[in-house]
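Review form for a predicted model. The reviewer records the input and the model, then writes brief findings.
Reviewer: anonymous (R2)
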Amino acid sequence: MLIEYINKALDKAVYDKLEDGSFSGKIPDCPGVVAFGESLSECQNELRSVLEGWLIVKIRHGDILPVIDGFDINKGIPSGSEAAADA
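Model under review:
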């Protein structure tokens, strides 16, 4: 379920080629998920890593995750005090 969510989020990624030839990427539905790389492939890999870390932090803190393409993984994720008790 989580892998499918990650893949859907990455499908929404937006990439830009920067003036120095490197790349930036972001996922608009996931505020703060931004990555950079010397190549597009490197940027894509870094963006996946950033997204995974972002999700871990959001889940650990019991934050609501964005629904992506109708895919909602908030059901079944402990919220607030439940998440803190499990940490």
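Findings: The chain is about 45% helix and 15% strand.
Further findings: Residues 2-82 form a domain with the Double Stranded RNA Binding Domain fold (CATH 3.30.160.250).
Recommendation: see findings above.
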